[in-house]
Amino acid sequence: MSPDDSRITREVDRQMALLSRGAVQIISEEELAKKLRRSLLSKKPLRVKLGVDPTAHDLHLGFTLPLSKLQLFSELGHRPVLIIGDATAMVGDPTGKNAARPKLDHDTVRDFAKSYLDQAGRVLDMDRVEVRWNSEWLTRLGFQELIALMSRSTVARMLERDDFSKRHREGVPIYIHEFLYPLLQGHDSVVVEADVELGGQDQLFNLLVGRDLQVQAGQEPQVCMMGPLLVGLDGHRKMSKSYGNYIGVNEAANEMFGKVMSLSDETMRTWFELLTCVPQEEIERLFEGDTHPRELKDRLAREIVTRFHGKEAAAAASEEFRRVFANKELPSDIPEAVVPEEALGAEGIRLTRLLTLLGLAPSNKEARRLVEQGGVRVDDDVIRDPASEITPQGGEVLRVGKKRFVKLVVNRMK
RNA sequence: GGAGAGAUGCCGGAGUGGUCAAACGGGGCGGACUGUAAAUCCGUUGCGCAUCGCGCUACGAAGGUUCGAAUCCUUCUCUCUCCA
Question: Which pTM was predicted?
Fold first, then answer.
């Protein structure tokens, strides 16, 4: 073995160690090592694919897991290929769903995609990324190609999937186009000639289809790397927009901090491991000691907020949180809400009406409920009479529930 | 193409002529307790208003029967199951 050879072996080992950290499953490690070695020898970076379907406005923390992995590949000299699934988004990934996804129109999808790219930049160095929109090739698939694609898989194969077989068993409709989804995603791999594809654990099936299609197209099959799914704020289900248990990448520092603080205790450790750069040994130490869980969580929240907003913002958010929720003081920065003067009668304005007017309650009925249940305060006084009128002078702080504060401003027309 | 079953609120799921704005569970929201954790408990969960009441909208869609329809009839749309 030449000295050069052993240098490369060492480098392969190093990359393998870094890359496989946190990965739940790699298909297969041998193939990955082989590809890495070849890449080092030929100085040709691996093409690492990650596909995201823009189906909502914000990217949440769950997405940062594969994005971070992609960034790691990038730092190791490989080529990140980020696929914006603007075409597949309109089909809808059936993964883990118990019903077909609603279809989105193309304008909406493009809108989402733009904001996704923006947010991805918080984790990824976008200058190094090859961004591809899969409508580029998917919308051009001709009839024959589509048929050819569909003939590459079978119904039985599709029904092996848990989500499909469950729906089938329970009599929930499965539409034909949903079967198409994994094939389209796999086709992307063929088009971009992916060496590796990243995805969450639940993407196993879809990623494997990519391998099949590549082999059938005469390419070397991609390595599939599945990462863990991030558990959401509730501590039970995976983080997802539709469960409302998510933190958006774009959220303000205070918001983000507060949400982390409401995380269930059991989930803290996982989050430390998946979402922060705190070294494993330190995490062990933190959890062995008898630190109050609140302090641990505060640390966690600071780590996470730092990642997206910087250290100062994180420290400020922590302090703010303490002030408002531990010391029960007012937030330092309360959004103002304008009360138009014409809404004020001789007796002022009915509190319930004010709440709906300012968007603090979706309906008068709801506003009434909030008041009756003692969820509404003006300055520090709980007001329980839904019929009460107030005459804001400006400067009063209106509080709804625990988290929502608004400072009243009266808009005087001359 | 034939036969059968079904579509109920955010979700699951009762209800088969008035007492139904619709049981029950989940979820959500508010409150208590606390660490904006968990667990627990209480309240609440279509909308409007002159709010212990009145009115409007709502049980897939449109019509009809009836003093009265989520409930009965007709047509339509959609789903599921079995047969071919």
Answer: 0.86
